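Recap from last week: sequence in, structure out.
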Amino acid sequence: MFAAARGHPIGGDKTPSHLAHAERLLHWYPGAHVIHVLRDPRAVYASARERDWAGPGRMGVRGPRPLTLWLDWWWATELALRARQARRLDRQLRLRHPHRYTRVDFERLVQQPEVEVRRLCERLGIAFHEPMLHPQVQSSSFLAAGTPGIRREVVDRWRRELPATVAHWVAIVTGRTT
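Predicted structure tokens:
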């Protein structure tokens, strides 16, 4: 992580599955701080579905047929259950590590980047700098380097791209009311 930080004082990793190992990582690295970016699971599913990482496209199935609908429900349920687990871990980590764990709501970060970035800087004890509000993609498997890192259009894209019944199902499984 520090090699990838390229001289910056803080290194990090954004692999979602690492949240399940946050307790161990915090134990191994006493100076570490976990920043958990939590995103609306409907948006996560819409994004994964668009890239064929989940949903019918993952299996090479296209078109409005029963198999496509079933696969959408199956993948959406799997993702929703992982989102429930992430929320459970969020509650546990906030209680156990109040000074070393911070949750950031993705939607709030994208809609109010300055407020959230300043909050994070204060929490981490680092100075805020204006360029932090204009990050660019450095390394990504699906976005070109230099692409703006904060893109407001992705916040509610799921409303246009997911079938309404699938979006509603994800909300039910994850306990979201909005």
